[in-house]
Please model this.
Amino acid sequence: MITIQLTKLESALDQIRKTQPKLLAADAALIATALSVTGRHAIAIYEGEQFTWPEDYQKLTHSMITQIEMVNEAIEHNAPKRTTKSTVEEEPVIVTVGLTPNLSAGEQVLAKRDDLKVVLSDILQEGVEFVYASTDIGWQWALDRANWNTVSGNDISRRIKIKASFTEGAVGIEMGIGGPKKRPSRAKGVVEIEAEPEMEPEIELGAEFAE
Model:
């Protein structure tokens, strides 16, 4: 399994050159870039459907709103009555969305290089471990900024957090302040409660990510 750091393309290039020593330097760079794009533009998987970022943004958010509203109702129903002015930060409720590498997006980087497309496909089939910050993944970046109040037409609790994690075709390790944290495979749409909220660093988006 090859490790691709989405925040460090030069590290991804080193991995390609080690595992594919016969590739020319320029071709290795193309493969590294293409692999990075397959992770950054990973396809979301929710309730058995696939959603491409950013084209399917509205489609995915509207597909999720039923569950978001159900979770919101549960939060409101179980909310403790406040007897004092002091407030304790409440734990987030996590709604998960699956991710899988976007081979088509990676192939677009390789243009007409069918030979390199075969190499890219083979690498993905052998297994890739993506190391990333939350702002490196298109869907995570978008869902973090979704206005669920507008989508649903109701007030949605800020405790609800969306986590996009690799569940098919790759392994994902999200980088946080406390170091890397591997995201295990989860059933899509499962609601989980974390022990404590994670804090992610502010990281600039790459040129290809901002498109």
In short: Residues 57-78 form the longest helix (22 residues). Residues 184-211 have pLDDT under 50 and may be disordered. The first strand starts at residue 2 and ends at 5. The chain is about 40% helix and 20% strand.
